[in-house]
Design a protein that fits this description.
Order of helices and strands: HHHEE
Number of strands: 2
Largest sheet: 2 strands, antiparallel
Shape: rod-shaped
Helix content: 25-40%
Radius of gyration: 43 Å
Strand content: 5-15%
Strand order of the largest sheet: 1-2
Length: 137
């Protein structure tokens, strides 16, 4: 044997891209080489796509489904309440207009039931000036 020698490796897999790794090495000039302990060898490097977390594969779709179900249920609930409490126009109201007003409309018209807009008081009611845009007949 010479003082300096080289060892080489060669491998082939055809036209596909592959990687070959030497994870352990045992060499002895005189006699048998030491046996390798497989449990002490390093692990192979990961080749291929990174493993996804279980949250992304299981948890995220479940959270999305629950969120979407909640939104749809909320929309259906709101629509059913609107339909349930919708004002029904009677036949005479179609001809003469409604005689009911929403509190919000009254609040805006009287500027928050302001004392400045108070026209008079009598019995158990208060009368307010109508807003300028209302036409009195």
């Amino acid at each position: 044997m010479k003082d300096q020698m080289y060892v080489g490796f060669s491998s082939s897999s055809g036209s596909f891209f592959t990687s070959h790794y030497v994870l352990g090495w045992s060499f002895n000039m005189n006699g048998a080489a030491k046996e390798l302990t497989l449990s002490q060898l390093p692990k192979l490097p990961r080749v291929g796509p990174k493993q996804q977390s279980k949250f992304l594969t299981i948890g995220l779709p479940i959270v999305g489904l629950v969120l979407m179900s909640t939104v749809i249920s909320g929309i259906l609930f709101i629509l059913s309440r609107k339909r349930k409490f919708a004002e029904v126009m009677e036949d005479w109201e179609i001809d003469y207009g409604p005689h009911r007003f929403k509190f919000k409309d009254l609040y805006i018209a009287t500027r928050g039931f302001s004392e400045k807009e108070l026209l008079g008081m009598g019995g158990c009611t208060e009368a307010y000036y109508p807003p300028p845009k209302w036409k009195l007949q």
